Amino acid sequence: MSEAQNAFRKRGKKHFFGAQHHAKRWRGSRELEVGMQGILITCSMNQRKCAAEAFNLLSEYADKLYGPEKFEEEAGECSEGENAKEEVDVEDALKKEVAQLRAGGGRQERRFQALDSGANNVIFIRTRNLESDKLVHHILSDLHATKKKKTRVILRMLPVTGTCKAFPEDMMRYMSTFLEPWFKKPNHATYQIAFKARNNSHNKRDDVIKAIAGLVGKLNPKNKVNLTQPDLTIILEVIKSVCCVSVVREYTRYRKYNLQEVVKDEEPKKEDAAKDAAKDGQGAATEPALAGGREALGKEEDAAAATQPALAGGSQAPEKEEDAAATQPALAGGSQAPEKEEDDAATQPALAGGSQAPEKEEDDAATQSAVVGGSAEEMQLAEEHLQEQSAMDDQQNKAEGDGE
């Protein structure tokens, strides 16, 4: 194996990953830091395209509000004639190049500059010499009025008018002065708080919202919370160790500053609501008919219950036993109810076949004379006549026997 191959094999990781290491250090100087102002833009899995759309959209509306962007001329730029006259000197050439690079650094500070936010699918665009909250509000109001979709990747666009360290003490200290223009006496308004934390576990949502609400209440007790239609919305976006803050208007009207939702038409929803109302009206109209049907069924059940006593061969209800006993003597065949025995005994002599009640024996003996053959006196006379006849027959027989 040759010496060149051995040298290639002995090269360390710094030789192969040195470029990436330098690139990472260079990227670190273009990250979101405390003290910056700009716009936070969220996207859907395509940050490079999102940055391109954001530059085009922001430049379009910024030119309308603030005019075209002007670039400063490079300081220390020399004409061709002067360069020709100067003697060729390496040291002078290096000095001029360094001066041009320093002067050129001011040229790169443009109106919009994309920085690394520190979170996935989030881009921070630093702004200079303009108010980011007014610019974003103007963009959303125009998109809401025209309903013209101008982006495909951008989701939300949130202005950042102040930044501080994302620690509870630093946040409270910064917010106490930051919120004064909107909420300190004599100013007051209804508000809500929108909090979001990315790559940060130091702050809990409920604790931060309670602390900010207490701070706003101290600035002016007339400030009230309204979660449906607030006048102002306090936005806190925490990314790593930086807290981005802004106060915006019409946050709920513009769909939480979502560019995809603000351009959607609301008329189909109204039509759906009208259809639902019509369905509810039809359902209300059919309910009385159903109620009438239920009433008719109830009446039919009552009528059927009234006609069932004649068909039911069983015993009657206890409270109707007295009346039923009077109408069913022929069918009962058994003993009558105690309270009706005296009246029924007179009407059932032929069917009963058994002994009569004790209290009716005297009356019944008079009615049975025809059946037995006569009254009691006549029967007694007949027995006496038979006895006399038998006695006479005995005497005659005895006399005949003595004569023999």
Question: Would you write up a description of this structure?
Answer:
There is one protein chain. This protein is an alpha+beta fold. Helix 3 (47-66) packs across helix 6 (132-146). Among the domains are: 29-72 and 88-262, 2-Layer Sandwich (THUMP fold), CATH 3.30.2300.10; 266-300. The chain has 18 helices and nine strands. It starts with a helix and ends with a helix. Residues 19-28, 73-88 and 309-373 have low confidence and may be disordered. The chain has a five-stranded mixed beta sheet, with helices on one face.
What separation lies between the terminal Cα atoms?
Answer: 190 Å
CATH topology of one domain: THUMP fold
Low-confidence blocks of residues: 19-28, 73-88, 309-373
Listing every helix as H and every strand as E from the N terminus to the C terminus, the arrangement reads HHEHHHEEHEEHHEHEEEHHHHHHHHH
**Taking all residues together, what is the mean pLDDT?**
73
Strand content: 5-15%
What is the tally of helical segments? Answer: 18
Computed over alpha carbons, the radius of gyration is 58 Å
Write down the overall geometry: rod-shaped
Q: Looking across the biggest beta sheet, what order are the strands in?
A: 5-9-8-6-7
Characterize the biggest β-sheet.
5 strands, mixed
Query: What is the level 1 CATH name of one domain?
Result: Alpha Beta
CATH superfamily of one domain: THUMP superfamily
Number of strands: 9
Strand-pairing-aware structural class: alpha+beta
Helical residue percent? Answer: 40-55%
CATH architecture of one domain: 2-Layer Sandwich
